[in-house]
C-alpha cells in the first residue's frame, strides 16, 4: 500500500501549476497511522470505512505538507475534529486557527486535547488559536487575514450535523488573503452536488452600494464577474470505497471584478509597467551621471561637466 500511495497520479489543470515534482509524496508517514487504536476511534468519528480513512489520511498529510506555501503564516482549519492539522502543516506556519463542526461552535474537549498532544509532540511548531466558532460562520476571523484554509473530511460531517458546508467555503473565501490557498480532501459529491464544481463557480458577494437590490437576486447566476477561486489542481483519491477528491484552489487576485474592471486593471498594469520602465531609465541615467562624477577632479570640474550636459 505504501508503494502505490507514492505513485498517486496528479492531474494538473492548465490554469495553474500543482507542483508535481514534490507534490503528493510525503517524506514521513504520520505517526498516527501506526496507532490502530487511535485511528479506529477517529474512524468512527468521521464515519468512514477503514480503507477510505487511511487513504484520505495519507493524502491529507501529503497535500497540506506540500501545498502550503513556505511564506504562509496563518492557517485556518474548517471543522477541526482532531489534532492532525498540527502535524500536517509545515513548521513555517506560525498560527493555526480552529473552527468547529458542532452547531454550538464549541470545539469539543477531546479535539482540544488532541491538538495539545500533537503540539507537545511537535515542539516549537505553530501557536494554536483555539476559537469557538462554527466552520460555516467564522465570526472571529477578519476578512483577508488568513494565508491558507484547510478542509479535511469535514464537509460531510458538517452536513450531517446540520451545518452549511457551502457557507464554510464562502467564509474561507472571505477570510483568505488574495492569492491565499484553499486545500481540501473531501467527498467528491455532497448532497448531490459536485464539491469542486461548487467551489469553482463561486462568486464573491457583490458590493451592495453599487448594485441595485433588484439585481441582487440574480447574483448567483451572474457570470460577468470573476469567480472567487481559481483551481490550482486536483486529483481523485484512488483506492477508496467512498469517492473523495483532493486538491488546491487559490483565491483569485481578480475575484469579483467585472469585465470592465478587469480590462481597466490590465490597462493600469500596462501603464504601471511603462512608468516602471521610464523610472528605471531615469534611475539608470542618474547612476551614469554619478559615475561620471566619480573620478574626482575637484568640485569645479564636476559642476562644469554637469552643466555642459
Ligand atoms: C468582509 O467581507 C464581507 C463579504 O465579502 C463584506 O460583506 C464585509 O463588508 C467585509 N467586512 C469588512 C469589515 O470589510
From TrEMBL:
Per the UniProt record, which residue ranges are transmembrane?
A: none
Molecular function GO terms recorded: S-adenosylmethionine-dependent methyltransferase activity
Q: What is this protein called?
A: Methyltransferase type 11 domain-containing protein
Question: Is the Signal keyword given for this protein?
Answer: yes
Keyword Ribosomal protein annotated: no
Q: Where is the signal peptide?
A: 1-23
| Feature: compositional bias, Low complexity | 300-309
Tell me the keywords, alphabetical order: Coiled coil, Signal
- Which domain of life does the protein's organism represent? Eukaryota
